[in-house]
Amino acid sequence: MNSKKLTLVLVAFLSFFSCAEAQSVNPKKNYFGNGLTSRFESMKQTELKGYEFAEVLNSAELLAKRTNDNYDCKVFYCYNGPSDPELDYCNNAANYYISNGTYDLPNDFRLFKVGPFYLVEKATLSPGSKKETYLLTIQHKYDEEKYTTEYLIGFDSVTLLRRK
Fold first, then answer.
1. In the chain, what are the helix, strand and coil shares in percent, each to the nearest 5?
2. How far apart (Å, rounded) are the C-alpha atoms in residues 45 and 42?
């Protein structure tokens, strides 16, 4: 399978999960969950059906792609869709999917998900402080308060650096 097909499969998988999870989260109830470690873990892989794959591809967009000597890092974002009509506020949220892939055959891939983030103002992917790492910075708002969340991305891990 070529790299474009694998990327499409990863994007589809990620979008489906982000849409399903984000719609079940009520942002007015404990926005940051029971702690940051449980909320921002890497996701497990599951099989996607044809319609799920199409849904993910249609709703995910590439935020940025960075390359180093050992792997490519691609960050996609996906919105959870329309707000819940039973809520008196908009619960539109974005999830970010991080796909790392090696150049050597057979290709080795890692897939991570962070989010959801409400009212994202800006998100950037830049070189990290350590060799072969990247820094994902997300500026977002919640209940009129601004937050900046940063993640250090390595090939095998995504680590929350700070939130505020």
1. 20, 40, 35
2. 10
pTM confidence score: 0.64
- Measured between alpha carbons, how far is residue 102 from residues 35, 54, 159 in Å? 32, 25, 20
Return the bridge partners of 100, or none.
73, 110
The answer to whether 151 and 160 have CB atoms below 8 angstroms apart is: yes
Q: Residue 44 pLDDT > 80, yes or no?
A: no
- Residue 46 dihedral angles phi and psi, to the nearest 5°: -140, 165
Alpha helices for the chain (secondary structure H): 3-24, 36-39, 50-59
**Cβ–Cβ under 8 Å, residues 67 and 122:** no
Containing 78, the helix (H) or strand (E) segment is strand 71-79
